[in-house]
Amino acid sequence: MKKAGTGVVPTTNRAFLFGDGVFESIRIIDGKPCFLDNHLNRLKMGLDALYIDIPEDFSLEKLEQEILEVIEANGIDQ
pLDDT by residue (tens digit) across 11-52? Predict the structure, then answer.
C-alpha cells in the first residue's frame, strides 16, 4: 500500500529533469473520489498537450485503482 510520505522521485524523472508535469486535485467525499473520469481525462489531455509520452502499460483503469488504493491506505474520507 502507498502511504503518505513514502514517495521518492528518481533523478531520471521527467518533472525532476525538466520542471514540467500535470496534476489534478481530486475532492474525496465518503472515501470516494468525485468526478474521477473527468479528472483522468484531463490528465490525459494535459500529457498530450505537453507531448509527454504515456507509458505502454498505462491505463486509466490502472490509475483509478491506484488512486483508490491511496485513498484507502491513508484513511481519507473527506
Answer: 888 888 888 888 899 999 998 999 999 998 999 899 899 888
Q: Residue 20 has which C-alpha cell? A: 514540467
Contact 33/27 with Cβ under 8 angstroms? yes
Distances (CA, A) of 19 to 13, 14, 58, 74: 10, 7, 22, 28
Burial class (CB in 10 A: 0-12, 13-18, 19+), 39: buried
3-state SS class at 52: coil
Distance CA 11, CA 29 (A): 35
Distance, in Å, from the CA atom of 3 to the CA atom of 74, rounded to the nearest integer, reads 6
